[in-house]
Amino acid sequence: MPQNKRQHFVPRFYLRRFSKDRRSINIWNINRRISICNANLKNQCYGDYFYGKDPIVEQALSTMEGDAAQVLRSIGETSVPPSFGSEEHQLLVFSILTQHGRTSHMADELEDVTDKLAKYLVKDSRIPQGIDMNAFRIGFEEPGLRALSSVIPLYPLLFDLTCKVLLNKTVTDFVTSDNPVIFYNQLMSFRRYGSNTGLAAKGLQIFLPIDPRHMIVLYDEDVYRVGDDNNKTVYIDRSRDAEQLNILQFCSASENIYFRDTPLDVAILHEKAKNFRSKMRSDLQVVATDRSLEGKQREIVRSSRVAINTDLSLTFLTVKFSAREWRRAFRRKKASIIRNPKLLDAFEEFQTQVEEGRYKQSEFLEFLQEGRRRF
To answer: For residue 288, what is the DSSP state?
Structure first.
């Protein structure tokens, strides 16, 4: 086998954090509804040439994984997140978004929305008789690489989110999955159309378990109160909270849940989560508008990923009164709301200067400092 053929979309160093012996891991397979104990860890979450045959992408990811492993190790040992703006904080945010964009689930989402959009755009074209477009799948040769490259440059949009560590003190371990980064939005969960979990969305929440006892949460501090305002560590002492967070993993996973201890009743978790799992990868909506000057009906085509919605309710996390009042006034509107317009404006200006060669893609904070910009 060529050295770079087997390419992991969830790194082994991460899965080892949920392993007892660093070589094997317990699995709950969602489609077959069975547990597989002590499965070979290196055979999990990979695809042949998932990012293409050019080894440069795999090598770059491997370098980042080494640095990210140190950050997660430190968080696991101290139960404290890195300080805001530090190199470790930047790396944590970058690696979380990279993990979000590099999975087979994200590649499938990209393929699905591309297929739906392409077929909609050609629906009125003259297609040769006898050709059934539904028999074809329209997509990319390397969807994994496409999905990853589409999100990596956007990591600065998450810099304004507050980071805390959830420390699990219950008897219920955190689990993880083959799609472990969860994007959620309790503030906007009433909206059943479009995406409420864009990187710049008001009310965004991101959850990532890093071992059975620790989970990272990034959140919009203007909207939510998470634990004690003065403490970056939040103690989870109710099993129902741990269960609710585990259900998110069941709803996010493509095929497999990974867990450390066999006493955990994953079958019951599956049963509680099954009604929240979406069968769709993406949603395509067509909005008809007034007729144009030529008398034709105009259409707006809107595509989005299908967000997770489990009616999440956690005892340590609440929506602030000011945010609830804002939501009450906003409910009838259909526009997307930007969480931090100043940050978005700065990011767009930064992207222009990156294209002009003044900055590298990794130098967003330097760009902010040199221009004395704040968000």
So the answer is: E
Q: Which amino acid, residue 125?
A: S
Collect all residues with Cβ–Cβ distance below 8 Å to 84 and sequence separation of at least 6. Answer: 163
pLDDT single digits (tens) 210-269: 999 999 999 999 999 999 999 999 999 999 999 999 999 999 999 999 999 877 899 999
Rounded-to-integer distance, Cα 307 and Cα 280, Å: 10
Burial 294-313 (b: 16+ CB within 10 A, else e): eeeeeeeeebbbbbbbbebe
Give the whole-angstrom CA distance, residue 98 versus residue 240: 30
Q: What is the pTM of this model?
A: 0.91
Is 15 within 8 Å of 41 (Cβ atoms)?
Answer: yes
Go through the chain and tell me how many residues it has.
375
CA distance 245 to 182: 10
Gyration radius (Cα) of the chain, Å: 22
The type of residue at 283 is D
Task: Provide the pLDDT for residue 256.
Answer: 98
Does 115 or 135 have the greater pLDDT score?
A: 115
CA distance from start to end of the chain: 49
Nearest to 189 by CA among 155, 223, 236: 223
Would you say the C-alpha torsion 255, 261, 266, 267 has a positive or negative sign?
positive
Residues 62-106: tens digit of each pLDDT: 999 999 999 999 999 999 999 998 999 999 999 999 999 999 988
Q: Is the dihedral angle over the CA atoms 174, 180, 181, 182 positive or is it negative? A: negative
